[in-house]
């Protein structure tokens, strides 16, 4: 059976993978999807948005959450699913929810 010659693209991919491993970055997919090593300085690392929202709802309730963060999805017919959809599409609202979660974890 003939052996395929390595292509230029595959050798570049192997080179990128090797450099990524040396730099402490792990190659997690093709092409060029990098996953950084665990960051101890980020308190939200590994915490999903759903877990954050569930923790806040259990601590404050929907009414209390709506008082802290003035967002309509917390006020009118709130649900975890609709709130997650809104927060994933709206960076400013997600930042407010994450900030409230961090304050609630410190205190």
From TrEMBL:
One Gene Ontology molecular-function label: DNA binding
Cross-referenced InterPro entries: DNA-binding_VF530-like, SAP_dom_sf
Domain of life of the native organism: Bacteria
Keywords: Membrane, Transmembrane, Transmembrane helix
Pfam families: VF530 (PF09905)
Gene3D superfamilies for this protein: SAP domain
Membrane-spanning parts: 12-32
Official protein name in the record: DUF2132 domain-containing protein
């Amino acid at each position: 059976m003939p052996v395929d010659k390595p292509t230029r693209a595959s050798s570049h991919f192997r080179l990128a993978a090797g450099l990524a491993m040396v730099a402490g970055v792990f190659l997690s997919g093709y092409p060029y999807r990098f996953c950084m090593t665990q960051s101890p300085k980020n308190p939200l690392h590994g915490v999903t948005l759903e877990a954050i929202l569930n923790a806040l709802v259990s601590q404050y309730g929907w009414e209390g959450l709506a008082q802290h963060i003035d967002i309509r999805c917390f006020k009118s017919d709130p649900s975890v699913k609709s709130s997650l959809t809104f927060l994933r599409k709206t960076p400013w609202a997600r930042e407010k929810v994450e900030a409230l979660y961090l304050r609630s974890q410190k205190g």
